[in-house]
Write a structure and sequence with these properties.
Length: about 675
């Protein structure tokens, strides 16, 4: 007889919410009691208002979580909205994530039998997911949850994709999601799309993470991680440094971390690898990694306090919110989603990175030195390094991280990582910040402008750089605030917000529509034409490439031979750059007009002080004359800028036409 499934209420009043036990980019997770069933559960609370741009992701996650049915996958009991939050009710995993456990008691990573036990369970989950057409896309220690009895569940389907999807969702496979350190090269590259083999790569990286306590390249800013992953040989376990690990472990990792996805084993095949023979039962995990651990909530609080301390130190040192955001990256949080085309084009422009290859190869896998004991699993030997050439260097990622200073930098700003990580990215992208509008101009407006300075700025051409900055805070809003803590004692006060509106166990489509509409209507959106893509907390725009890759119309018209796709690809950044340039010029123009108005206003006021005099009487004071000449100069500059803008618009239109022609050609060819 089939045991009837427990029916979890879709009503917030039926849950007693206790302490916070986890936190991600988009959500906080609480321990809670389902009162009618008298069962402890975990509730993931997502603020839908903050997820305007990622409702599709949420819908996907909830849908996947509700449909899956495998002991190694974290499924949702139910989900519903309450106020502007979405609650996802799921089994409570009292041990927390492997990342949390490592941070608390195994900073150097786990022993091999523990790793084998953990990974075998994860692999079983992947076999199931892949067989059902899903790519998880975010396999990492932070998403491997351990229950009180040592059983394992893979969590977080926030970025998972369904291979069988069509239309919009199919497109997901051509987007760039996940967490850079764990991300397969083909996901970054997107040349031919990617499939479930991307999870095998992340699985290999997770194996290294569990072995060392951190993922390879975890100290590097995302851009550098991307370049290293794309350009260097894969990371791996080192024969020297990782002596304590078995040959079969090294081989298993090497089998996963092959750049060519076709040469990676499927999850099913990998499960048969001899490495997993040493996997034990859950109670082994319970004894070895859970025993003596404080309750999850306490651990979470301690870790959070530690992180807050670190963040505070960083921000005190630099007074810069960017570091806080970078800290999240270091913590292994997902959602560093960038516009891939921008990234690729930017990466292509960073020539000097080639020089880094050698240094970075030190981090490359010892794959090249390994025998492949795992039949049929081809190893791609990339840039093999002979020990004679670099005798004293380990291949190990952690070693490389220890020697971070030895790695040549992409830009000076990278050198100071982790102190200046986002600035480094800003060199390549515009990561917009609300408040940081053109400071020079603001100063000018607010403080009045010295004549000399103004003259200078008027005489020199205004170089409109690639940076523009405006948007939301990068500060994780719950780092220093207690607003997310919902304990029993707070329940009374928070209860009104717990009103049930409707169940969201099913698709979130209608909700998404509304929110999307809202997001389109925001003032910010309307004013930011230059934004190419807004993902997670960042809006990524293409940087102004014009300085590095000037647009040459005559050249464009001469293009006949290269394939249409490559022309289109090479045109895109220029087009984006021009668009951005336009937007910036418009902004500049607007500011200048405002300034002129202000100055003219001042003049008027001044004139009005002596009625009927201003138009007839010659300007007598030097200040008056100065202002008058400034106004004239500004008006002239205005005119020039308007002209430039017009020209750029025309160029833009031409390029757009060319681009659409090329696209058409490309489509015809296909
Ligand atoms: N069912 C659960 N039981 C116990 N802890 C959990 C549970 N689900 C999640 N957590 C904890 O909460 C953290 C954040 O959850 P989750 O990963 O789902 O959020 P997220 O916003 O999707 O995060 P990210 O995008 O960074 O992976 C996890 O890393 C884990 O430590």
């Amino acid at each position: 007889m089939e045991v009837p499934k427990e029916r979890f209420p879709v009503n917030a009043e039926d849950y007693k919410v206790y302490e916070e036990v986890g936190e991600g980019v988009s959500a906080s997770v609480y321990r809670a009691l389902c009162v009618p069933l008298n069962k402890i559960v975990a509730i993931k609370v997502l603020d839908l208002e903050k997820c305007n741009n990622d409702l599709d992701g949420i819908r996907r996650e909830v849908q996947t979580m509700s449909l899956i049915n495998h002991p190694n996958l974290l499924r949702a009991y139910c989900s519903f909205t309450t106020g502007h939050n979405l609650w996802v009710v799921m089994p409570y995993m009292a041990g927390g994530s492997c990342l949390h456990i490592m941070k608390t008691s195994f900073p150097e990573g786990f022993e091999e039998p523990v790793i084998a036990t953990l990974l075998r369970e994860v692999l079983k989950a992947l076999v199931y997911l892949h067989a059902h057409g899903h790519i998880h896309r975010d396999v990492k220690a932070g998403n491997i949850l351990v229950d009180f009895n040592g059983s394992i569940k893979l969590a977080d389907f926030g970025v998972s994709a369904c291979m069988f999807d069509t239309g919009d969702r199919q497109r997901v496979r051509n987007t760039f999601v996940g967490t850079p350190c764990w991300m397969a090269p083909e996901v970054m590259q997107q040349l031919h799309g990617y499939d479930f083999k991307a999870d095998i790569w992340s699985f290999g990286i997770t194996a290294l993470e569990l072995a060392h306590g951190h993922a390879p390249f975890s100290k590097y800013p995302p851009m550098k991680v991307l370049l290293m992953t794309l350009q260097n040989a894969p990371p791996g376990l080192d024969y020297e440094r990782d002596k304590k690990f078995s040959k079969s472990f090294k081989e298993m990792v090497a089998a996963c971390l092959v750049k060519d996805p076709k040469k990676r084993p499927s999850s099913e095949k990998l499960l048969k690898h001899p490495f997993f023979k040493q996997a034990r039962t859950p109670d082994y995990l319970q004894r070895t990694i859970l025993d003596g651990l404080p309750p999850l909530g306490d651990r979470f609080r301690m870790l959070k306090a530690k992180e807050a301390d670190l963040l505070l130190q960083n921000s005190e040192l630099n007074g810069n919110k960017d570091h806080l955001s970078q800290q999240e990256y270091i913590r292994g949080i997902s959602a560093w989603n960038f516009n891939l085309e921008d990234l690729k084009n930017q990466a292509a422009l960073i020539q000097d990175y080639d020089e880094n290859s050698n240094a970075n190869d030190q981090n490359s896998s010892s794959n090249s030195k390994q025998e492949n004991g795992f039949n049929d699993v081809g190893l791609q030997l990339e840039k093999p390094l002979s020990p004679e050439i670099i005798p004293n260097h380990s291949d190990d990622a952690s070693h490389l991280e220890d020697e971070i200073d030895e790695v040549p930098n992409l830009e000076d700003s990278f050198a100071s990582f982790p102190m200046k990580p986002l600035q480094a990215l800003k060199g390549c992208f515009d990561i917009d910040e609300d408040s940081a509008v053109d400071e020079k101009l603001l100063d000018t407006e607010e403080n009045g402008i010295e004549n000399q300075d103004l003259k200078k700025s008027l005489q020199q051409p205004i170089i409109i750089g690639p940076k523009k900055h405006s948007s939301g805070s990068l500060l994780p809003d719950n780092v220093f605030s207690s607003k997310k803590l919902i304990g029993d004692f707070e329940r009374e006060s928070t209860q009104p917000g717990f009103r049930v509106e409707r169940s969201y166990s099913g698709p979130l489509q209608s909700r998404q529509k509304n929110n999307t509409a809202n997001s389109f209507n925001t003032k910010e959106d309307a004013s930011e034409e230059a934004v190419v893509q807004r993902k997670g907390r960042f809006k990524v725009t293409s940087a102004d490439l014009s300085l590095k890759a000037p647009v040459n119309n005559s050249n464009l018209s001469g293009i006949t031979s290269p394939p249409a796709s490559s022309i289109a690809t090479s045109l895109l950044p220029s087009l984006q750059s021009i668009l951005q340039h336009n937007a910036l010029q418009r902004e500049e123009l607007y500011k200048l007009i405002k300034f002129v108005e202000q100055v003219s206003g001042n003049c008027m006021e001044y004139g009005e002080a002596g009625p009927n005099e201003s138009s007839q009487t010659p300007l007598s004071s030097p200040r008056e004359r100065e202002l008058q000449s400034q106004v004239i100069q500004l008006q002239q500059r205005n005119g020039i800028l308007a002209e430039q803008l017009q020209r750029q618009k025309m160029k833009n239109a031409q390029l757009e036409m060319k681009l659409s022609d090329l696209m058409k050609k490309e489509n015809i060819q296909e």
